[in-house]
Protein DPCD
Amino acid sequence: MCEDTINNMASKWVETLREAEKTSIIQDGRRKIHFTLKDGTELAEEYDTRNNELVVRKWRKKSTLGSQGKWDFEVGEQLAPRNLDAEGLMESTSNPIFVRTDTKKAFQWRIRNLPYPIETYDVRVDAENRCVIIRTTNKKYYKKFTIPDMDRAALPLSQSSLSVAYANNTLILNYEKPKEILAQEKILQEEFKKMKAAKDGDVECNPS
């Protein structure tokens, strides 16, 4: 597929972000960008300044009454505040924790607190329903999830792009990013570089 075609397929999402109101700040080693889309939806992204890898992507929509809703994490996770009074007394949860943590070349998901060996897991792409499904042969865990980036670009899903690994009670899924997504990310990074980013302490930035 030629580069012009790839860029055209990526252009719709790029234009959506170009047209959004946005602010940028460099803070704690991250470039934090806050977008307000035309419909009022807020998008906040954080990139590691060392390698431009996406660390956080989260969304927030206003409720039907106009109040601010909670952030919904697409990439990364909400860190729980530390309870100093109870520190050392609280037990860590044993429930599986599902978090997306991307790399440069792949969408990545980590499911922590899964104690079963790798042969227990059946991970498949459901191309027709545009999702990934995780099952265990012991019927102890089931998860179905989408890849929003692929949906936004209207790209098909493929089983051959998916790989699975397991270590330290964590199931790790990688879905190789197609050329269209890599081209889209390259375009957006160039756009972000054009933005004037405040340094931490210079200005107050929208929450991100």
